[in-house]
Write a structure and sequence with these properties.
Blueprint lengths: L31 H5 L5 E7 L4 E11 L4 E2 L6 E2 L4 H14 L21 E5 L4 E4 L7 H4 L20 H7 L18 H14 L3 H13 L10 H4 L6 E3 L6 E3 L23 E2 L1 H12 L3 E2 L2 E2 L3 H8 L14 E3 L4 E3 L14 E4 L5 E5 L4 E6 L13 H13 L5
Helix pairs in contact: 2-5
Length: 398
Amino acid sequence: MIRSTLLAITLAFAAIPAFGEDAKGSVVAKLQPYLADHTLSGAVTLVASKNRVLSFETAGHADVAAKEPMKKDSLFWIASMSKPVSITAFMMLVDEGKVNVDDPAEKYLPEFKGMMVAMETNADHVLLKKPAHPVRVRDLITHTHGLSRAPLDLKGESLSLRNAVRTYSLTPLKWEPGSRYEYSNMGIDAAAAIVEVVSEKHFEDFLDERLLRPLGMKDTTFWPDERQLKRIAKSYKPRKDKTGLDEASLGVFEPSAGNLRRAPGPAGGLFSTATDISIFGRMLLNGGSYGGKRYLSEAAVKQMTSTQTGDLLLAGRDDTGYGFGFMTGRDSQPGAAWMASGTYGHGGAFGTFLWIDPKRELVMVLMIQHASFPGQEKDTIRPTFVKAAVETFGVNSD
């Protein structure tokens, strides 16, 4: 648990573990400047092809004060990297014909029936309009749904996933479904609620039984157990003056043994390791198969990893689109490894990152716990890592 008083930490880099070695050169070493200027405490990087791990390295510390080195099996809160994992489980039901992405969401979630769009809103009135079409399932998984959170005072209580999704129908839609792209957790959580309705199982049980355990993602969980808690890399926030790092909390996702009170959080609640995420990525790179077992159809993988949002932009950015649960590259800078056309993946709020390049046949996994990630570092750390992986391993590294 995070101590009540933030630790002021100055890194002594003579004590930082050496960067990993690789026959073709070190990828994690390219992140050394971020450790040297006290932006990062440590990192785990893994690069794989369809058939094997090409590079697996660590640097820095999982616990700076205790001088505990980062390890290959260190556990990380992956935050929004949970989204593609959760939607993969959802797409299994689509493959089985039990869910259709073009159906109205109200077919599975009756509380969404009759939702209206807020055309005008001020302190005195709200003008409502019937939408051209109801919220569709595909709107939920592409962030184009228009849902908003109801202003509820829960006094610290945690709603179940199903009840949390029911509250999304208590306020009008913010826009015509499908007409705007605004990133949020609500649609992904609603899709997970559909899994619960259709499968008649808790989402976390369906995910574990159908995807995590069969695929071998043994450390991926919403609730780390006591043994896993000992392997969690601590989260840090760099000081503005770059003189050191302070410990940072994961907020509602701060882990503790047996913390089952919190709902699973399909859009952002998973913890995982570099190995588990690389297995997940290799399954996708192999078109839905891994270890001789098929998890998704090739058609489902193509849907998930192709841009489904057309020309809609997220906050004006033209480098990414969105598939079903995945960010997709738009090739806004032709020839660049970062966000190239055909690439896809997802990041997490504290800097974790999975990126897959089918053309170069690479799965790239970056695991860090960087609390102030929104900002300048976001635009440099991840591209630096992707560029290093691509330059080191290129095309068809088998």
